Amino acid sequence: MRITSFMILSVVSLICLGLLMVFNTTSAEIIEKGVVTYLPLLKQTLYICFGMAVGFFFYQLGYEFFLSRGREIYAILILFLILVFVPKIGVCLNGSYRWINFFGISLQPSEFMKMGFPIIYLYLLKRVKNKVTFKVFCLWQVILLIPICLILFEPDNGTAFILIVTMILLYFITGLKLRYWLIPTGVAMMALLSAALSMPHVTARITSYLNPESDILGKGHQAYQAKIAAGCGNFVGRGLGESMQKYHYLPEARSDYIAAIFAEEFGFLGVCILVFLYTLVAAMGFAIAFKSKDEYAHYLVVTYTFIISFGAFLNLGIVSGMLPSKGTNLPFFSLGGSSFLSNLLMVAIILSIHKKTTVTEKKFLGGRS
What we know:
The chain has helices spanning about 1-35, 40-60, 65, 70-85, 110-125, 135-155, 155-175, 180-195, 200-210, 220-230, 260-290, 295-320, 335-369; strands at about 90-95, 95-100, 105. By secondary structure, it is mostly helical. It has a three-stranded antiparallel beta sheet with strand order 1-2-3, covered by helices on one side. Helix 5 (about 110-125) packs antiparallel against helix 6 (about 135-155). The radius of gyration is 21 Å and the shape is globular.
């Protein structure tokens, strides 16, 4: 139970800090506009409540329920990814078709594909009982690349990149023969990279990453202002509520770049605490994976833990200027319903695996005694 307690405590701490920062950045709008608008805070609170309720439901269902329904999950997620391009259902924001809208509720299907992708792969692996031929592998490549291509068409290069890395991780940890996937996956990645580099907004982001000052009022604006925010934090920060960058100097301060405002107010020490919390989530996740006796549960926990940790790494790397902007949320911290819900459901499934492992161990020890 100690592993479960540490993981829950870490995730709850991140959620509480994120909620505090959402309220904090919202206060800047209240001061500027002279009106009280706590809508972002209310939305995030509702996301948390709904996410915890659904997460508890997933926890009770258990991971085996989802692993046995990979075909249905794949069909539903592909349908949602197609719906983003359907007029009056799909929503276009900033030139990207990433959202669908049902009765005023917006969802980002690509975020849920992060959760569904490992389930789909393990479902396919379980069907062939780990006996993968090259013909079967080629069919898998087609099945798995369809959602990645749909996400690239939106475009959502950050999520597509995470899914490609996740796919490679799954091939590696499940012991797939290198001669099957190393060269074909490399060719596919090069093709996708070439396609991405042909997109003007991608090349603009790379240029602004290498030299933000070259387009300080355009593509380089966020990266430049994020560096100013993080740099102003020094060791202990300006103090809670004392950020200057949140007053519309830094766009997306509540979502993709919320860590920059956190760094400005809590400094290097605060960022170290934030990194520690994500490290603790990762450590507990891998501990659960290594305790699991079910190989498919082991693969699922390793992959989910990686996705959450990798998402945190990418976001913090982007905010610090180490990586080019990819529009990636900070797990459990940034404002955003789909991302938050997807990450919380992954944690719920991880905890359900640990529950099953604990119950199995007790039965085993009881049988021995």
